[in-house]
Specification:
Helix content is 57%, strand content 1%. By secondary structure, the chain is mainly α. Helix 7 packs across helix 10 and helix 8 packs across helix 9.
């Protein structure tokens, strides 16, 4: 099918008709790929500029319209753009107005203005403009203003649909009004403004965003005198938006106020806006004045000799006219951009920093002893050769040139032996090539020899702590520091097996030769004394002290029972 798309412009009328007959059933195919290719072939047929293709289109224009209308329900989202291009070429090829066909395809075109695909959106707006020019072309005896008015009436029928359809219709009307702003009558425009002010009372955010885009287009196309009679009505309608939607659409609202400030000044707009928008308008005025001062300073630095331009620099420059694509595109993306800006402001100084570049990655070449061997990217272990740090440049020569050299000795498992005390000079050799024994280097070599021997025997590896402790350190006395205080200096309980640390309360009263407790001279009687601790008031650790108290109560009951039995026995013996 790709070959057919490329060959269509060079076919004669007979072969073009055969290609059309083959493609016609494929347009309604359930396979989205085949359907899109079929629409691409039909697009090349409709777009053809050769004489044979033009004759075929003129004879089959009605059939093409019928085919496109029938295939509307089965068209897939991926086929929207080529299908819209087919509609565009069919409308351009019509010699007379076909109102039924236009009323059938207009809802589809309007809904495509809300498509995710940017090509489909652009083509939908292009068809709306082309229909307006075609209606003027189809009625040369009528005034252009009347033709555009009839077209606007056809589009306003979509305002009675669902919120999605209403939003799409408002965007379509915005594009048409921007295109025919010179010929559209004031009566139609006033009716549209009244309708948009009514739609600004809606609770659907999708409708509100499109209505604000329409107001923004009005501030762009109307001059200061024509827009002045609608300013108060528009500001009141914008002020009536609910608080939740007003917060979400603050950026489009701010853009509209900014345009009105440039047209009518601060004093007029500040009186018309509600109380909750006055602070925003005041900040916008300060920002505009700050921009003027900065531009004046910049111009003065660039042209220090031109004194006549100082007053001109303080006058606000006229903003560059924006295209309709920029106006309508901002209406969809301003809320997302504002949310991202707010998140960046929360980040503080970090948000102002430029975005850091992504980390680079290196691919380690060579392997298996052959550095020139090409890499096999299908090998599952190829991911191990992707490095986050740049590998050191090594030489493949057997002499080891190019390797990083150091004076430390290494073990077979890759560990380094680093002697403490800094670099030590080598001792001069005695006669016969022998060195004196007993130096630190000899001790290091002896330790390495023992480690190598143990490594070769397959014994367990010594821990790094054992290697780092020398005999001198073992002979040293323990530290005299004793923990005390709070925080990191608090005394830490020692394990029970060590025999040291804090003893349990009452343990000093235990008898070593018999059961039970015994009295000691100079100390209280051996009852249970539990020290009070403020940590027992912690709610998260309430179960542990509760269990301790429960154990004390249980032990006290057992002791009371034993004591009672002992007293009874003693009384019986006395009797």
């Amino acid at each position: 099918m790709d070959l057919a798309i490329a060959m269509i412009p060079y076919l004669d009328q007979e072969h073009v008709e055969k290609a059309y007959r083959l493609v016609q059933p494929l347009i309604q195919s359930k396979d989205h790929t085949i359907q899109k290719k079929a629409y691409r072939i039909l697009e090349e047929i409709c777009e053809g500029t050769s004489e044979s293709i033009r004759q075929f289109i003129q004879g089959r224009i009605g059939e093409l319209q019928e085919v496109l209308v029938k295939s509307l329900s089965s068209s897939s989202p991926s086929s929207k753009a080529p299908r819209l291009r087919c509609l565009l070429f069919v409308i351009k090829g019509q010699e007379e107005e076909n109102t039924d066909f236009l009323l059938t395809v207009l809802p589809e075109i309007l809904l495509c203005t809300k498509e995710v695909n940017s090509k489909a959106r652009a083509m939908a707006f292009g068809i709306l403009v082309e229909i307006g020019h075609s209606m003027v072309r189809w009625s040369p005896e009528q005034d252009k203003q009347i033709c555009v008015g009839r077209y606007v009436e056809m589009l306003t029928a979509g305002l009675a649909g669902s919120p999605h359809m209403i939003s799409a219709t408002i965007l379509g009307l915005s594009r048409v009004i921007y295109e025919f702003k010179a010929v559209i009558s004031g009566g139609y425009l006033e009716q549209l403004i009244d309708g948009v002010c009514t739609l600004l009372k809606s609770t659907a955010r999708e409708v509100l965003r499109s209505a604000l885009a329409f107001v923004k287009v009005l501030t762009q196309i109307l001059d200061q005198a024509d827009l002045a009679q609608h300013v108060q009505k528009l500001i009141q309608s914008i002020s009536g938006i609910g608080e939740v939607n007003r917060r979400a659409l603050r950026q489009p609202i701010k853009s509209i106020y900014s345009r009105l400030l440039r047209k009518y000044g601060y004093e007029m707009i500040y009186k018309l806006v509600p109380e909750y928008h006055k602070k925003m308008v005041s900040n916008m005025k300060k920002q505009q004045e700050r921009t003027k001062r900065r531009r004046a300073v910049k111009d003065a630095l660039d042209n220090p000799e031109d004194d006549d331009d100082e007053e001109a620099a303080l006058v606000p420059s006229k903003p560059k006219p924006e295209t309709i694509e920029e106006l309508l595109q901002d209406s969809e993306s301003e809320s997302d951009d504002e949310d991202a800006k707010v998140k960046g402001q929360k980040g503080g100084a970090k948000a102002k920093r430029p975005i850091a570049k992504r980390g680079k990655a290196w691919l380690k070449e060579g392997g298996g002893g052959d550095a020139a061997e090409p890499l096999d990217f299908l090998d599952p272990s190829i991911s191990k050769r992707v490095l986050a740090t740049k590998p050191e440049a090594t030489s493949s020569k057997p002499d080891g040139k190019g390797l990083v050299k150091h004076n430390f000795k290494t073990m077979p498992d890759g560990r380094l032996f680093i002697s403490e005390g800094g670099e030590e000079e080598e001792q001069p050799q005695q006669r016969g090539g022998k060195r004196k024994r007993g130096g630190p280097a000899d001790e290091l070599e002896q330790m390495m020899d023992e480690e190598l021997a143990q490594f070769k025997k397959g014994g367990q590896k010594r821990k790094s702590e054992d290697l780092s402790i020398s005999d001198d350190e073992e002979d040293q006395s323990p530290m005299k520091y004793q923990a005390g205080g709070s925080g990191i200096h608090r005394p830490i309980a020692v394990a029970k097996h060590s025999g040291k640390g804090n003893k349990a309360p009452g343990s000093e009263y235990k008898s070593k030769k018999a059961k039970g407790d015994m009295k000691k001279k100079g100390k209280p009687d051996p009852y249970t004394y539990v020290p009070l601790n403020r940590q027992q008031l912690n709610k998260r650790k309430s179960k542990k002290p509760a269990g301790q108290w429960q154990n004390l109560i249980t032990a006290a009951k057992k002791g009371a029972v034993k004591g009672k039995k002992g007293n009874n026995k003693r009384h019986k013996k006395r009797k």
